[in-house]
């Protein structure tokens, strides 16, 4: 459900996506893809100019990306948000390397 709210046409429903991903994490704290969804949602919120609380979204995205990658580094989505985290914090060389790794997991 979180992905459908995140990927809907027009303005994504970040609040609803976040709610569903958080429910998934609460139900299973080892659900790496749910953390990846939280990371993706918060990184995207950061880049929407109208989003208040940009710093909080950045921190939440980084935290969720770390959790996703720690739980399942071989999951393509978890690897993708880990790469995005590196780009986000300014480590572009590592981000590119991790993005290539994510692509190799799901060519």
Characteristic terms for this protein:
0% strand; globular; 107 residues; mainly alpha
Which helices and strands appear, and what pairs or packs with what?
Layout: H1 2-6, H2 14-27, H3 32-47, H4 54-71, H5 76-88, H6 92-105
Helix pairs in contact: 2-3, 3-4, 3-5, 4-5, 5-6
Question: How does this model look, in words?
Answer:
The longest helix has 18 residues, at 54-71. The model has no long low-confidence stretch (mean pLDDT 88). Helix 2 runs antiparallel to helix 3 (32-47), helix 3 (32-47) runs antiparallel to helix 4 (54-71) and helix 3 (32-47) runs parallel beside helix 5 (76-88). The protein has 107 residues and is mainly alpha-helical. Helix content is 75%, strand content 0%.
Low-pLDDT regions: none
Strand residue content: under 5%
Helix/strand-derived class? mainly alpha
Shape: globular
Produce a short descriptive summary.
The protein is mainly α and 107 residues long.
């Amino acid at each position: 459900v979180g992905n459908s709210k995140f990927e809907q046409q027009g303005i994504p429903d970040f609040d609803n996506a976040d709610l569903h991903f958080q429910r998934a994490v609460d139900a299973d704290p080892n659900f790496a893809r749910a953390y990846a969804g939280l990371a993706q949602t918060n990184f995207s919120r950061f880049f929407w100019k109208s989003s208040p609380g940009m710093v909080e979204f950045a921190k939440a995205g980084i935290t969720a990306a770390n959790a996703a990658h720690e739980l399942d580094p071989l999951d393509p989505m978890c690897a993708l948000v880990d790469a995005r985290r590196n780009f986000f914090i300014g480590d572009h060389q590592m981000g590119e390397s991790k993005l290539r790794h994510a692509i190799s997991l799901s060519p």
